[in-house]
Structure formats: structure tokens, C-alpha cells
Write a structure and sequence with these properties.
The chain is built from 26 helices and no strands. The longest helix is centred in the first third of the chain and has 21 residues. With 495 residues, the protein is mainly alpha-helical.
Length: 495
């Protein structure tokens, strides 16, 4: 799932299991519905909320859960028809809930969160202005509620979520947030969510929610390894829920543990789910691509065939292009590179990365593409063999050509990932020197890696490299370079 998908997931999973007033009763049906959502049994969850509303039509919490069911379904399988139905149901539920039990801390919490969901879907489906206005209104109400009830755990949870989400907004939204005076601090947000997990870690029902929030906080904060380490530190039974299992596989993939992600997915059968779950094809295809497995083509094709939304189209078409490239099919590579440039939008960070990739003024070297994919997946020995073969075949890999720069960057990454920092430094400094005047990301990323190497032994030197990475950074390519550098500078400067 992309950055936006993670943000939406955070919003739709904010279920409050605390004891509530009579008009916000967390009944058995509501609790069972929440558990069904975590297990991706969305139809079952819908039936449970219908049953609760039929038995207790004045339980406004049930309407909130019902919207979560719809949001889940729309998040997973977005269609224009589903979006219109979501809007209709949203307005119907708001009409029922508005001005009911307004003194309850749950009143503003439920309604503002529902409004925030609606705002984000507005943005995803093209009505950005309406979405931003609705999201800002929800933001104000959330903090109004927090001022009234500072000890209300759900309010603190939302405070943490918003800090992380806002600090990781895409550029087209962040400028608007700044205009409205909306700001967030990811480190503060993560700290709040971590406290939330500690508070409810032993509470049945809330513990699974707390696990999910902590994972997503790490993910949104560009720290998949943090999420991975957190998962490893807790009871493995949490992974029995299919949604948590999906995120477990995702963070393992993002952290470079590709085989572990594959093993997790071996127990995940999308055919047994109550609804079509296209994110499975999205992630499984990317896992197989890192193995250089040609089956990635099949999963990417399935994803595109089942996809009904504009985001991820650029990313997956370019991923599919690479899958054809490493299999020697240049014609299909060029075809899907063209599709990537023409289809979809630039909402997600991955789509914007694809925009840089397909705009390159050269065809990527097949062996370098393979080596990069293998390094991303943690297949260091296989990557080393390919890079050694590549160096023996090339006449000059000490030039300023993009191939030479990428080769040396990958050599640096290989040494870094195998704990040979002295050799890694040599390669990264070489890339930095040769590529500092080139319009590619290689020099900027090399500076980022040099900062990561030195941050434990020489913080000031690390800061200088992170600053160098930001100086060389061009907004046309990978945003993580600038974002990670900025965050590391902040952390090192305050320590």
C-alpha cells in the first residue's frame, strides 16, 4: 500500500473500545465487526453493524463502525460507483448523528474522523479543494475535542496519528496544510502512538488496534525497519489477523527482508476473502520482481486488470516495464514505460518516483536493474555476482555516465549492507565527486548513505553529508532522500 493508502488505513481503523455513554455503546456486535475488519471479512462486518443498528438504532457508535466498513471496501477496491455510494451513506449517517449527545467526548471524535475520511476520499477521486476543506474542518474539531477532554485516550491517539500523517503529506497537499496553519511533527506523533500502545498493550480488543497504529506510524514516518523491529518484539499472535499479516509482509518487503515477506504471504490466500483484495497482487508482484522472478509480470498484470483507481498506475506500469526489461523484452519495456507516462496521477510518492524513472534520458542497464532489485530485497550475494560480472565486461566505469554512477552507488550499497563501511565510503565518495554536477539522483543518495554511516561515530560529519544530500536533491526524483536527510539532521542536531 502506498503512503496515501496507509494514511487512509489509519483513519478508517480508529475504533474506540473504551466504555462509552449509552448513545455510544461499544456493543458485542460492534466489537465483532471491528475484529472482522481486521481480518478483512468486510461483508461479515457489515452484517454485524446492520444487526446492531436494527437492535439499537440510537447507538451512534454503530453508524461510525458502519462507515469504517464502507471505507475499508472503498480503500481496497476503489470505484467511482463505490465512491458515490460512500458519499450517500456518509451524508445519511451524519444526518442521524449530528447534534446527538454533543457533550460526549465521542461526539466530535466520531464525526470529525468520518469527515476526515470523506475529505481524503474526495482528494483521491479528484475533488482536491473540497477534500482539503473537509479535512481542515475535521482537523479543527479533533483538536477542539482534545482541548475539552485532554485525557480522552482516543483524542490522544488521533493527535498522534495526525502529527505523523500531516508531516508526511505529499507536496500538493502539504502547501495547502501550511497555508491553513496545519502542522505536524512525526517524531512527536510516533511518541504519542507508542505511549498509546504501551497503555493498551494488554487490553483485549485495543491491543490489536494499538499494534496497527504503531506499525503505520513507522511506515508513514519512512521507517519500515522500525515497524519491522516492532513487529518482531511483540506477540506473534497479532499476525493472525489478515490485515496485520499484510502489513507485516509489507514492512518486511520495505525493510529488505524479501524472503520473509514471501514466507508471510505463503499463508495469505486472497481467494478465501469475502471481497476482491487487489493489494495482494500489488505487493506480491513487487516481492517477486525483487527475486527476478518472471511471475511478477502476471501479478502486475492482474493488478492493472482489477484496478479501478488512478493512483499506482504509474508505479505499477513502470514496475511491469522493468519486469519485461530484465527478461530481455525491450519492446514491452518501452510500451509500459509509455503507459506509465500517460496513465494515472501523481498522488502517491511511488507514482512520483515512477515519473522520474520513466523520464530518464537513457534505457537502464539490465544488469544494474537486476543488481538494484536484488539489493533492495536483501539478496546480497546474488547482487554481488551480477555486479562483478558487470565490472568485468565494461571498459570504463569511472566516468560520469549514469551507468558508471549507478554501478558505483550499487557497489557502495553492497558494501554497506554487508557491513564493510570503509569500502562503502570509498564508493559513495566516488559517486558524490563524479555525480555532483549531474542531473541524476545518484550523488544525492550517496551523500545520504554517507550520513547514515557517520551518524553514530561522527554526528557533525553525518549532518554535513545529510545537508549535502539535501543541497544536491532535485524535487523531480525520490522524495525519501530529502525527507530522511531532513529528519536525521533534526534528530542529530537536538541530541
Amino acid at each position: 500500500m502506498t503512503c496515501w493508502r496507509f494514511i487512509i488505513t489509519i483513519l478508517v481503523l480508529a475504533v474506540f473500545h473504551q466504555n462509552a455513554s449509552a448513545q455510544y455503546e461499544v456493543s458485542k456486535n460492534c466489537t465483532m465487526a471491528w475484529e472482522a475488519l481486521l481480518d478483512l471479512r468486510i461483508n461479515t462486518a457489515k452484517e454485524l453493524t446492520k444487526k446492531e443498528i436494527s437492535l439499537n438504532p440510537d447507538n451512534y457508535y454503530a453508524y461510525y463502525v458502519a462507515q469504517n466498513c464502507d471505507a475499508y471496501e472503498l480503500m481496497i477496491n476503489a470505484t467511482s460507483e463505490g465512491y458515490e455510494a460512500f458519499k450517500d451513506n456518509y451524508y445519511d449517517r451524519r444526518e442521524i448523528m449530528d447534534d446527538k449527545d454533543v457533550e460526549s467526548p465521542y461526539y466530535l471524535a466520531c464525526e470529525s474522523e468520518m469527515q476526515l475520511q470523506m475529505g481524503i476520499f474526495n482528494i483521491i477521486f479528484g475533488d482536491r479543494l473540497a477534500g482539503l476543506r473537509r479535512a481542515f474542518s475535521a482537523y479543527k474539531n479533533i483538536y477542539k475535542n482534545l482541548d475539552r477532554y485532554p485525557d480522552f485516550q482516543m483524542g490522544n491517539k488521533l493527535d498522534g496519528m495526525l502529527n505523523v500523517a500531516i508531516s508526511n503529506l505529499p507536496p500538493f497537499v502539504s502547501w495547502a496544510a501550511n497555508t491553513f496553519g496545519v502542522s505536524g511533527d512525526a517524531e512527536v506523533g510516533y511518541s504519542i502512538l507508542n505511549t498509546y500502545f504501551d497503555y493498551f498493550g494488554d487490553t483485549p480488543g485495543l491491543n490489536e488496534e494499538a499494534v496497527l497504529y504503531t506499525i503505520l506510524a513507522h511506515k508513514l514516518n519512512k521507517d519500515p525497519l522500525g515497524a519491522y523491529n516492532f513487529i518482531k518484539s511483540i506477540d506473534s499472535s497479532y499476525a493472525n489477523y489478515l490485515l496485520l499479516k499484510y502489513f507485516y509482509a509489507n514492512v518486511a518487503y520495505r525493510s529488505g527482508f524479501n524472503e520473509e515477506a514471501l514466507n508471510i504471504f505463503s499463508t495469505f490466500n486472497p481467494n478465501e476473502l469475502e471481497i476482491q483484495f487487489n493489494p495482494y497482487n500489488y505487493l506480491y508482484g513487487k516481492i517477486m520482481l525483487r527475486k527476478l522472478d518472471s511471475s511478477a509480470i502476471m501479478y502486475f498484470t492482474k493488478y492493472l486488470d482489477q484496478n479501478n483507481k488512478k493512483d499506482n498506475l504509474k508505479e505499477i506500469n513502470y514496475q511491469l516495464a522493468l519486469a519485461y526489461l530484465i527478461n530481455g523484452n525491450i519492446a514491452r519495456f518501452l510500451e509500459h514505460k509509455k503507459f506509465a507516462s500517460e496513465l494515472g496521477d501523481d498522488i502517491t510518492e511511488r507514482d512520483r518516483e515512477a515519473m522520474y524513472d520513466y523520464s530518464l534520458d537513457y534505457i537502464p542497464d539490465i544488469n544494474l536493474v537486476k543488481a538494484k532489485l536484488l539489493l533492495d530485497g536483501g539478496y546480497n550475494l546474488h547482487a554481488k555476482a551480477i555486479l562483478e560480472k558487470y565490472s568485468s565486461e565494461k571498459i570504463d566505469y569511472n566516468s560520469q555516465s549514469p551507468y558508471s554512477l549507478e554501478y558505483n552507488l550499487l557497489i557502495g550499497r553492497l558494501e554497506y549492507q554487508t557491513n564493510n563501511n570503509k569500502l562503502a565510503i570509498i564508493s559513495f565518495e566516488k559517486v558524490l565527486d563524479m555525480g555532483k554536477d549531474q542531473d541524476y539522483y545518484f550523488a544525492s543518495e550517496a551523500a545520504l548513505y554517507l550520513g547514515l554511516i557517520f551518524e553514530k561515530t561522527d554526528p557533525q560529519k553525518a549532518i554535513s553529508f545529510f545537508e549535502r544530500a539535501r543541497e544536491l536533491y532535485d524535487s523531480d526524483y525520490y522524495e525519501y532522500i530529502d525527507e530522511i536527510s531532513k529528519k536525521r539532521i533534526k534528530i542529530l542536531s537536538s541530541s
